[in-house]
Write a structure and sequence with these properties.
- The protein is an alpha/beta fold.
- The protein folds into three domains: 5-122, Gyrase A, domain 2 (2-Layer Sandwich); 138-213 and 388-448, Up-down Bundle (Four Helix Bundle (Hemerythrin (Met), subunit A)), CATH 1.20.120.430; 216-381, P-loop containing nucleotide triphosphate hydrolases (Rossmann fold, 3-Layer(aba) Sandwich), CATH 3.40.50.300.
- It contains 16 helices and 13 strands.
- The strands form two sheets. It has a seven-stranded mixed beta sheet with strand order 3-4-5-6-2-1-7, covered by helices on one side. A six-stranded mixed beta sheet has the order 9-10-8-11-12-13, with helices on both faces.
- Helix 6 runs antiparallel to helix 15 and helix 7 (187-216) packs antiparallel against helix 14 (391-412).
C-alpha cells in the first residue's frame, strides 16, 4: 500500500478518450515527469490541466490531467487521472511511461481495495461498485447505488448496535456483580432481545431474495419432450431466431440462452434439449444437462403437446418440479386434443397451466403475466431497494440464524449467561464481516480480484 499504482480505467479499444488512473504518494510527481505543461506539483487539488505526455521531449499525446490530493479522493491517496485520446497504442504507451517512471501496474480491483482498506468505503459499498458496473437493469442499478451510498450497510450497523447493547449489559453483570442498581441479565431477559434480532435478520433475508432476483434475474429453463415448441417459445420471447426450429426431433442438442426484461427484471432463458430416451451420444449429453438444470433454476417452464398423451416420463418430471416455481404450457392448441387435462390437473396445480399456440402468438402475454404474478414483480417496483444481493452476505446471515438457534438451546438448558455470550458475540462478529468491520485477508484478496483492472 506504500507504492504508487497505475492502470487503464476505461475499456481498451478505439474511442474518443481513454482514462489512465494513478494512485499513491508519488502519483503527482511521477505524472509530472512525463507531462509537459503546468508544473503539477504546484497546482491546487481537484483541478484539470491541459498539456502533453512526452517521452524525451517527443510528444506522445495531447491530454487533460486531473489532479486530486489526499484525503478527498476515492482511495484517500493522491490520485491523478490522465485523459488521453482513445486508442490501444496511445493508451498503452502512456501506461508504459508511467510504469517506467516508478508506478506499479495495479492489480484487478486494487483502487477499490485501497479505498476499503483506507476506510473510504465499507465492504458492502465496495461490492456495490462491481454490481453497478455489471447491472443489467434499472432496478439492479438502483440497488447498487443504494448500497454504494451506505443505506444497506446502515441496516447491518443497526443490528450490530442492538447486539452490542446486549453484550455490554452481560459484561457489566460479569465484571461488576456487586453493583445492585444494574439490570441483572438473565436468560429470560435476553430471550426477547435475541428474538427481536432474529426477526430483523429474517426480514433482511426475505427481502434479499427479492434483491437477488433484481440483481441476477430469474434463471428460467424451458424443458419438455422433443418438438413440443421449446425453441419456438424461446424465439418468440426473444423476438429473434435464436434457436433452430425444425420438425426433426432432437434438433436442439445443447442449451441455447437468451435474456429479456419483464417489468424491469431480467429473465435468463435457457432452451434445453428435448427430454427423451436416445442412443445418440451427443443428444444424450444434452438431455442430462436438461435434468441437471432443473435443480438450479428459479423457474421451470414445462411444455406439453396438446395432441400427445401424457406418458410416464412426463409424470416423473412433473413430480420432480411440483415443489418448485413452475409453469406448465400446453402448446399447439390448434391441433386435435389428445392430452387428458383432468389427469394433468390431478398431478399439479391447475392455476399453473397455460394453454398456448406459439406459432400463432397465442398465450404469450398470459405467460408473461403469470411470471410477473409468481415473482411479485409489480410489488418489487414499489419495495424499498435496501437489499443484500451477493451470495457472501446472504450466506453469512444464514449462518447467524444457525447460531441464534444454538442460543435458544442454551437458554432452554439454563446454560450460564457467560457461555451464552460466546454465541451472541459470534453473531456480532459475523455481521461485521458483511460490512468489513471484521475480515480475513484471504477473503479481501479474493473479493477484489473479481474487479476489472483500473477499478
Amino acid at each position: 500500500m506504500n507504492d504508487t499504482i497505475a492502470a487503464i480505467s476505461t475499456s481498451l479499444g478505439v474511442g474518443a478518450i481513454s482514462i489512465i488512473r494513478v494512485s499513491g504518494d508519488d502519483s503527482i510527481k511521477i505524472v509530472n515527469t512525463i507531462f509537459k505543461g503546468q508544473n503539477l506539483n504546484l497546482v491546487d487539488s481537484h483541478t484539470i490541466h491541459y498539456g502533453h505526455i512526452v517521452e524525451n521531449e517527443k510528444i506522445i499525446d495531447e491530454v487533460l490531467v486531473s489532479v486530486m490530493r489526499k484525503p478527498k479522493t476515492f482511495t484517500t491517496e493522491d490520485v491523478v487521472e490522465i485523459n488521453c485520446h482513445g486508442g490501444i497504442t496511445t493508451t498503452n504507451k502512456v501506461l508504459e511511461l508511467l510504469l517506467m517512471n516508478g508506478c506499479r501496474l495495479a492489480e484487478p480491483g486494487e483502487f477499490t481495495k485501497r479505498a476499503f482498506l483506507n476506510g473510504r468505503i465499507d465492504l458492502l459499498e465496495a461490492e456495490a461498485i462491481g454490481d453497478l458496473i455489471n447491472s443489467k437493469s434499472e432496478k439492479a442499478r438502483i440497488i447498487a447505488i443504494n448500497q454504494m451510498q451506505g443505506k444497506t450497510s446502515n441496516m447491518i450497523r443497526i443490528l450490530r448496535k442492538k447486539i452490542l447493547e446486549v453484550l455490554a449489559n452481560i459484561e457489566v453483570n460479569i465484571d461488576y456483580p456487586e453493583y445492585e442498581d444494574i439490570l441483572v441479565m438473565t436468560n429470560d431477559i435476553i430471550l426477547p432481545k435475541i428474538k427481536e434480532i432474529e426477526n430483523d435478520i429474517k426480514e433482511i433475508l426475505n427481502n434479499s431474495e427479492n434483491g437477488k432476483i433484481i440483481k441476477e434475474g430469474i434463471k428460467t429453463i424451458i424443458i419438455g419432450r422433443p418438438n413440443v415448441g421449446k425453441s419456438s417459445l424461446l424465439n418468440n420471447l426473444l423476438d429473434e431466431e435464436k434457436a433452430i426450429v425444425t420438425d426433426i426431433a432432437g434438433t436442439t442438442r445443447d442449451i441455447v440462452e437468451g435474456q429479456i426484461l419483464i417489468d424491469g427484471i431480467l429473465l435468463n432463458l435457457i432452451d434445453t434439449a428435448g427430454i427423451r430416451k436416445t442412443d445418440d451420444i451427443v443428444e444424450k449429453i444434452g438431455v442430462e444437462k436438461s435434468y441437471n438444470l432443473i435443480e438450479k433454476a428459479n423457474l421451470i417452464i414445462y411444455m406439453l403437446n396438446n395432441n400427445e398423451e401424457i406418458n410416464n416420463e412426463d409424470i416423473e418430471i412433473l413430480n420432480k418440479i411440483k415443489n418448485k416455481n413452475y409453469i406448465v404450457i400446453i402448446n399447439k392448441m390448434d391441433l386435435d386434443n389428445n392430452l387428458n387435462i383432468d389427469k394433468l390437473s390431478s398431478l399439479i396445480d391447475q392455476n399453473n397451466i397455460i394453454m398456448m399456440c406459439i406459432n400463432k402468438n397465442i398465450g404469450i402475454d398470459r405467460l408473461k403475466e403469470k411470471i410477473k404474478n409468481m415473482f411479485n414483480l409489480e410489488k418489487l417496483e414499489t419495495e424499498d431497494y435496501n437489499f443484500l444481493t451477493n451470495a457472501r452476505s446472504i450466506s453469512i446471515l444464514k449462518e447467524t440464524l444457525i447460531l441464534i438457534s444454538n442460543i435458544y438451546i442454551s437458554i432452554e438448558k439454563n446454560i450460564p449467561i457467560d457461555m451464552v455470550e460466546i454465541d451472541i458475540k459470534k453473531v456480532w462478529e459475523l455481521l461485521g464481516e458483511i460490512i468489513g468491520e471484521t475480515y480475513q485477508d484471504e477473503l479481501i484478496n479474493q473479493l477484489f480480484s473479481q474487479f476489472c483492472l483500473g477499478k
